[in-house]
Amino acid sequence: PSPQGVGMAGPRAPRFLLVFDFDETIVDENSDDSVVRGRALPERLRQSPAAGGYNEHMRRVLAFLGEQGVRPAELRAAYESIPLAPGMAELFQLLSKHQEQFELVLISDANTFGIEAKLRAAGARSLFRKVFSNPAGPDRRGVLTLGPYHSHKCLRCPANMCKAKILAEYLAERAREDVEFQRVLYVGDGANDFCPAGTLTAADVAFPRKGYPMHRLIQESQEKQPGAFQAAVVPWESAVEVARYLQELLRKKC
User: Which sites are catalytic (predicted)?
Assistant: First the structure.
């Protein structure tokens, strides 16, 4: 073992942790909208849910679809056909060539069933070490059921998921396994991505999708309190811009 006690993990440990959101980040739509498109929902399920009640709302939507005879295979096909965001296929290609440098995790308020289906269809599932999302799968009757991810005390986030808590716990778990990252890189779009992005340090990079809520919230926080948001901010319209930034990072070796 090396004198620092790093042992075998040392030279081969990935240098960068790359965190992805799913809806409107990896895929170009909100996957919940994609699976209900073209299906007749009753009025009570067409209303937008109250703030923070989205997981509960989707649970009711999926239960209703199950009652109408919509089977998981049909929903899987809907998830598989959601288009990737612009440039995402190119970004995945780059990452597949540099798997020893980047460790990938996905943190999403969608659901594990839809995410796993889409990643497999895109040939990208093996790139991700972990997928953190609301648990979903067929029950004994063959109806897709959905649960909350966890509980937390964050006042900014919906009751079922605080992404900052998930990220902090993951970094702590990896540190216990002697994996410390030089930088955390966070690719997202939504208001619930602003919470974890706010915990990043000056060494880290936030990649908000241009013009989406995460981007607007970062801009507002920078105006209100310059310096409070510490990470470098690299907005993107196409994930090719993220890929370009990562290539530069690899070239710099820092």
Answer: 21 (nucleophile), 23 (proton donor)
